[in-house]
Amino acid sequence: MLTRRSRRRSMCTSLMLIGGGLMLLLLSTAASLAIQGGWGAARRGQAGRDLNAVYFADSKRGWAAGDGGFIMHTEDGGKSWVRQPIDTTEGINDVYFRDKENGYVLAGSRIFSTEDGGLTWRETIRFSPSTFSGAPPELYSVRFAGKKKGWVVGSTSRRDIVVDSLVLFTDDSGVTWQRQLVPTREELIHLDFAGDRRGWIVGAGGVILHTRDGGLSWTAQHSSTDATLYHVDFRNDNDGWAVGQRGTVLRTTDGGETWTAVSVPLRSTLLSVKFANDGDGWIVGRGGVILRSGDGGLTWVQQQSGTKQNLYALFIEKKNCWAVGGDGMVLKYER
Fold first, then answer.
1. 3-class secondary structure, 74
2. Could you tell me the pLDDT band of residue 318, with boundaries at 50, 70 and 90?
3. What is the average per-residue pLDDT within 132-155?
4. Contact indicator for 310, 327 with CB cutoff of 8 Å
5. CA 151 from centroid of its chain's CA atoms
6. Chain-wide mean pLDDT for the chain?
7. Disulfide engineering: 202 pairs with which of 85, 153, 214, 232, CB 3.0-4.6 Å?
8. DSSP secondary structure, 88-116, as one string
9. What is the CA radius of gyration of the chain?
C-alpha cells in the first residue's frame, strides 16, 4: 500500500540546507519552462526534493513547502519565490493559511504557526511518542473552520507500520490540541470542511469519516472501495469528490450518504482534487498526471502537464491553478 509516509521516506535524501537556514533565499526564476496544454512547469524548489503542499491566499500571495523543512513564498503570483526560514529539517506535509497572515505548517510530529505571513515561523507544539502509547505520530493535513476551531489528521506507527489513526482538535487557534476518538484505526491523510459544522476525512482502506456537529463526533461513510484515498474536496454541504489509488475518483451529491465511482482514462495513483466552481475541476497525481472536468466531475479528460514528476498537491484560486511535486516542480495554469 502506497501511503504518504512510505512515499516520502523512500524519496527523501539527506542533503544539507544552504545558507544556514536563517537567511531568505531568492530562488531563480530562470529555470527551464515548459508549457503544454495551458500548464507551465518549472523547478522553483530544491532539485531532487519533493514539494508536498501549496496554498495561495489570493492571486499574488502563495506558499509551497516540502522535503527537508523547505518552505517558500511568492508575492507576485509565482514569478519569483523567496525561501522562508523554519526550524525543522523534517518533510513538510501540509501548509494552510486561515487568512493572509495566520498560517500553519505540519512537519512530522510538529505544528508550526505564523502570524506575519510566514516571515517568522514558530513551533507551537511537538507531539512525543509517549503521548500516544510510545507510537510516534505523523501529521498530514490541517484545516480550520473559522478563526479558533481547527483539526489535524494523521497516524501513529511503530517501525513504519501504522497502528492507529489520529484526529486532533483545537478551539483556541492552535495553542492547544486535544485528541478525538474516531471509528477507525486506519491512516488518515486529508480532511476538508464545508462551513463550520460539516467535515470529511479520508485515508487508507477507502475510509471516509464525516461530522455534522463541527467535529464533536465522527461517523464512517461507505465508500465502496478499499483503495487508499489521498484527498477530499467539498464545494458545499452536498457536493464532494475524493481521489486515490488505482485511478479512484469518487463523487457525492448528498454529503457522502452515497459515493459513486467515476470512470477516468487511467489507473495512476491520484493525489489531489480541487474544483474552481460547480463545473470546473482538476485532479493531479503520479507521473505528472493532470485530469480536468468541465461538467461537475461527471467526466474527466487528461491534460498535458509538461512534466513526468509526481504531482502531490493542487490549489485553485480565482484566476489560476497551481500544482507542486517532485524535483521542486511548480506548475501554473491560467484560467
1. strand
2. confident
3. 96
4. no
5. 13
6. 90
7. 232
8. --SPEEEEEESSSS-EEEEETTEEEEESS
9. 18
Are 141 and 152 a contacting pair, CB within 8 Å?
Answer: yes
Domain architecture of the chain: domains with CATH:
4-334 (2.130.10.10)
Mean pLDDT of 31-41: 57
Residue reference for cell 480532511:
191
- Scanning the structure block, which residue is given the C-alpha cell 509538461? 306
Q: What is the full DSSP assignment across 229-250?
A: EEEEEESSSS-EEEEEGGG-EE
Q: What is the mean pLDDT of residues 190-203?
A: 96
Biggest alpha carbon distance in the chain?
Answer: 52
pTM of the model: 0.89
| Residue 65 · residue 73 · CB < 8 Å | no
* Contacts of the segment 289-295: beta carbons below 8 A, 24+ positions apart: 290/37, 290/39, 290/323, 290/331, 291/264, 291/265, 291/266
What's the residue count for the chain? 335
- pLDDT at residue 15, as a whole number: 30
